[in-house]
Structures are given as structure tokens and as C-alpha cells.
Amino acid sequence: YEVSSRVAATKKALEDGAKVIYEAAFLEDDVFVAVDVLHRSRRRWTVTEVKSTTKVKPEHIPDVGVQTHVVRRAGLDVARAEVMHLNRECRHPDLSDLFARTDVTEQVEARLPAIPGEARRQLRMLRGPEPDVGVGDHCSSPYECPFAERCWPESANHHVGTLYRIGGKQLDRLLDAGYDSIHDLPDDIELSAIADRQRRAVQSGTMVVEPGLGNALARLEHPIAYLDFETIALPIPIWSGCRPYDGVPVQFSCHVEDANGALRHHEWIAEGAGDPRPALAEALVRALRGAKTILAYNAGFELGCIADLREAVPELGAALQGVARRVRDLLPIVREHVYHPDFGGGFGLKRVLPPLVPDLSYDDLAIQDGGSATVELERLLLGGAEMKKAERAALREALLAYCRLDTLAMVKIVARLRALAETRGRGSARRRVGRSVGRAC
């Protein structure tokens, strides 16, 4: 009923001479489309597909093609097909160029001859039994298939596909050679240094610690500040100088560790919809004052936030540049020196934390991942005025707790790495003494 009523409403709008119809609905040859914007220019029409991206993507063209095909089948003369998307060059407060329109008529016309046959094939498929299609890259590109978990077979324990940054061609070669699990790989197989470390850890069932770990940690000079930002990226910017999807830091946590291991904690979170960057930058510089090393996990993100703050708060530019010069990245220290079999081929913070620090977990937190934190930060900043006081306070504390744990996790990981390096160093020393005694005898 809903489809037929929408089609009827569109037909009436056309008969009444409407020049622009939003969500124009058509049903032809059992194919239903809803055109985001259908615009009349004299007796010809433009089909506009609206996307929240900042550019036209290849997967947008079939969408516009099917719409154009159906609208033409309904008897309308479509002269132009276009994709409307956000313009990354638009900067607040001037939003007059927030949207860009890209003409895709040529690409759509090239696809149109194949659409009727493809539509018939898909309709036959829908009317028939469950299709027998092998799994592959098409299960996740251009979109994740909702049936992937049902269709994909259960992988072998430590499947070779979990090798660190295994390329498609290399993976195919390993599978073609009969290797299914990392346990099957011979010692002389050609792998990257990190993937080979993974192989050794999996096959031995123990953590591999490389000899350079102690030296890498020794370069972290105290006091050490452990820093983490949380950001929001709004499609429609609301703060001066921001573009669509600019990641704006609105929260940070910082644990500062002195040479004796004592910790101080600093944290800051935005309040309300006002521009948070000046106050955040000021609090950040104050929290990091005196720290000789500023440690982040995957520090490119933090460095990007600091660079954006320098542009937004030029009066603190020199101080923020000083902050950036002291930033070091913890991720490569882990990646280049340690592998635990439970890392599963990845080195994200939440991937390495459970094996390295099993007594520290996000499981009891109300917010457990960065994606949820971003959504909730937007809700707190832009919708907080509509919340009850207790709800707003609870959400604020949940966000603080999540970000706080991100930096505490780094503190605990570094402590664990120090212990591993010390243990390995003692073992190496014992081996050297043993060899010396053997030679003396």
C-alpha cells in the first residue's frame, strides 16, 4: 500500500505541474525507485541522487542509472543525471556552497543498455531459491553484505588470512599452496618481519619479544604524558573555519607519569554547542606543561588534532607546536617488538590490551568504543540542553570514563612492555654468562 500511495502522489504532483518533487516515487516493470530530487526544466527532467559523501563514488553511478531507467520507462524525458554531495571546500560560516552537483549523465548513459537485463536477472533471483554464490571480495565491497556471517565458512584457527597486512595475491598463493592455518606455514616461508613474528608466536603458543624493545622504551623520557582525543565530525559544520566532516577535538584525557611511576590525571570535555577549541587548547597546553614525552597510540590522529587546533587557535600556535614536537607513537613500539598469539593480526589498542593487560577491560563501561563515543558526544553537545540534568550528567561521566581508560590503557601497556623487556634482558644476560663460562671451561 505504501508503494502504491507514494507512486500515486508522485503522479498527481506531475499532473499538477510541479517543477520539483522530492522523493519522487515510480514503479515500472516491478522495479521501484524513489528519486531524491526530480527537477523539471521546461519539458525535460533532471534526476538528482543526494549523497552524504564529499565526492561521487563509483557505486553511486548504478543507483542513478536505475533511477534514470525507471523514470524514463514512466514516460518522462530525463535529460540530465547528477549526484549532489557535500563540498569539502565549504567553510563555516559561509554555507552557500555547502553542496556540489556533479553531472554523471555520460556515465549513466553508458550503463543504461545493461540495466533492463540486470533487473530481470535480479527479479528472477528473488523469485527463485537461495542463490549459490561463492564468498569473496564482493561480500564487503562496495558495501558489507548483511548475510556475510551466515555465508562465510568458519575459518581455521589462526587462518592465514589473519596474517598482518596479508595482500590478496599473497593470500591466494598461500591458499593455493594448501596453507590454511598459520600453524601450517614452514619456517622459510617468505613473510614480512611482522607477519613472521606473528607466525613464530602462533606456532610456539607464546608471546614473542624482540631484543630492541628495551632500547625503544628507554627513548621515552620522563615525565611521560599519555594523550588521547575524542572528536566529532559534523557533515554540516557549525564552528568557524570548519569544513564538512572535519574532525574537531571536543574531549581529551591525559595521564602524566613521573620518573617514580606516580600518575596525575587531566581531562576536559566540551559543554554545549559553542566552539570548544579555544578552551580545549588552553586546557591541553596546561595539562602537558613539563612533559618531556607525549605518548599517543597511533599518534597521527593526535598530531592531526593538534595541527587543527593550531589553525583554529592561532594565539596558542607556538605552544601547540611545542606539544606536537614532543609527541611519540606507542603503536609502532608494540608492532615492531612484540607479538602475542591473541593479537589476531592487528595492533589496535583494543586488540593488544586484553592479551597484554588482561585485568584492564572496557567491558564494564557504558561506552566501549570510539564510534559510540562520537555519537554520544554529538548528542551531549548538540542535544544536551534537551536532556534532563541527571541524564546529561550520566552521559558526561560515561564519556569521561571511556576516554580516561584509553590513556590508562597506554600507561598499563607501557608498564607491561617494560616488564617484558626487563625479563628478556635478564634472559639474554644469563645466556651470555652461560656461553662465557662454557668457553672458560
How does this structure look, described?
The chain is α/β, with parallel strands linked by helices and 441 residues long. It has a five-stranded mixed sheet. Helix 2 links the parallel strand 3 and strand 4. Helix 2 packs across helix 3, helix 10 runs antiparallel to helix 11 and helix 14 runs antiparallel to helix 15. It is globular, with a radius of gyration of 28 Å.
Q: What are the SSEs and their pairings?
A:
Layout: H1 2-15, E1 20-28, E2 31-41, E3 44-50, H2 60-73, E4 78-86, E5 99-103, H3 105-111, H4 115-127, H5 148-151, H6 168-176, H7 193-204, E6 208-209, H8 213-218, E7 224-233, E8 247-257, E9 263-269, H9 277-288, E10 293-296, H10 300-312, H11 317-325, E11 327-329, H12 331-337, E12 338-339, H13 349-356, H14 370-383, H15 389-440
Parallel strand pairs: 3-4, 7-10, 10-11
Antiparallel strand pairs: 1-2, 2-3, 4-5, 6-12, 7-8, 8-9
List the keywords.
single chain, 441 residues, alpha/beta, five-stranded mixed β-sheet, 12 strands, disordered C terminus
Largest sheet: 5 strands, mixed
Provide the spatial order of strands within the biggest beta sheet. Answer: 1-2-3-4-5
Order of helices and strands: HEEEHEEHHHHHEHEEEHEHHEHEHHH
Overall geometry:
globular
Strand fraction equals 15-25%
Number of strands: 12
Give the end-to-end Cα distance, rounded to a whole number of Å.
94 Å
Query: Which segments are poorly predicted (pLDDT under 50) over 5 or more consecutive residues?
Result: 436-441
Give a short synopsis of this structure.
The chain has 15 helices and 12 strands.
